[in-house]
Amino acid sequence: MRFRYGSNIGKLMVLLGCLMYVPLVVILFQPDQLRYAYAYLIPASASVALGLIVLYFTTPDEDKPQNYRAVLARSSWVVLFIWIWGSLVGAAPFALGLHMTFLHALFESVSGWTTVGLSIIDVGATPQIFMFHRCFMQYCGGLGFVLIMILIISNRDSMNLYDAEGHPDKILPSIRRTAQAIFLVYNICLVVATVAYMLAGLSFFDGLYHAMCGLSTGGFTNKLGSVGDFQSVPVEVITVVLMLVGATNFATLLLFVQGKWRRAFKTTEVRFMLGSLVVVTAVVSADLAIEGGLGLVEGFRQGFFSCVTAMTTTGFSICDFTTWPPAAVGVLIVVMLVGGGFGSTAGGLKLRRAYIMLRVMVQDVRRRVLPSSRVAPMYFTTAQGRNKIDPALVSNTMSMFVMYILVYLIGAIGMCMTSGAPLEGCLFEFASAFSSAGVSVGITSASASNGTLIIEMIGMLLGRLEIVVVFVGFGATWEYLKQWRRQRSRRRL
């Protein structure tokens, strides 16, 4: 028996298995970690072997569906499958090596691949190889499995899978060259950031971990108090720059790297991000200084860093959010839900969608009070040029916004029911999981109920894959099962 449309799944399973071998590099630096090698060799080898089996029993070129809906369904199903498979394989080392329960190991894995950053392990007692594994998952998760696969193998399905995983921009004429450009810029930033951290006084592994997790806007750390443990302003400055880089659209980031700064700063998202950051930092810093009693300097320090980590959905922290005034926490919730740039490693609704909704709102008011001749068409600027805000774009944006808010409210209420925590805390915690922010007010822990952790994991996957891909993927799976049952019934007859 040979299966159809499984070649991409097989390739991605092999790729994932190869990525799982990478943490074994730590053994070269710390030979005592060799005793944990089996925790990676088993799941990595299993993923590679199963992927090769899928490839062997696949007929990739037969009966390719040509209509848009079939292509979208298949691409969404492939992306959804590999992210679920990646979560399972990524959980295996925690279960085998650290003897964590399956649910706790899965939570850590999902949080890693989706670049959320919420954690339930004791980082102070975790061996180095597992710390590297956590951070490496976030680094790869920021790029995405499909983009990494395209670096090695590209086919006629590559563009559909690339779009389905949440990469909207084709920077260069070839999809493979686009992936290579993103990968090159991503790794150059990693090297520069690691060196900068080491110059600021961090060890190699501390610098590497925070560079990987800052650039991927993931937020995992090997310190109990996150970035705040270093008590270093230079480290905080480097981290802020790194988070902003990670939250910038890859195409815009390439303009910066090419020296086209003026063109990069003309993009709508960069201007909107910087303008919004100034406003929310002023509000939060003032609230912390006055109501929180921190004073102007410390209020600005905590407010600015926290607003950046929330807007970029990174999750690093330098303070305890449970001591913050409610108004400041409320602002952070809104900032986390909006998130970073479209096509960046950041999560959230995305700055571009927030900007479009605000422009539509302003335009609607202008239509009501001004003559039609004075109401000009709306545009926004990307790295590729000027784009018109047409009715189709407005419809898609509003649809995504409604779905986003509904899922957020349902998830927050579900957490209230399973955790017993107050609504304010659950609104913050689920916003953190759903937007890939990763900051916590204490609800997420090893003692949290299974229901709470499951709801957060669902929120993480929905947020990383932007809801629609998950729904379409499950819908495609359901349709496939229905067709399989019909075929099976006909064979029996």
UniProtKB/TrEMBL annotation:
Pfam families: TrkH. The chain crosses the membrane at residues 12-31, 37-57, 77-96, 136-153, 181-205, 237-258, 270-290, 327-349, 401-421, 461-481. It is a multi-pass membrane protein. It comes from the Bacteria. Belongs to the TrkH potassium transport family. PANTHER family: TRK SYSTEM POTASSIUM UPTAKE PROTEIN TRKG-RELATED (PTHR32024). This is Potassium transporter TrkG.
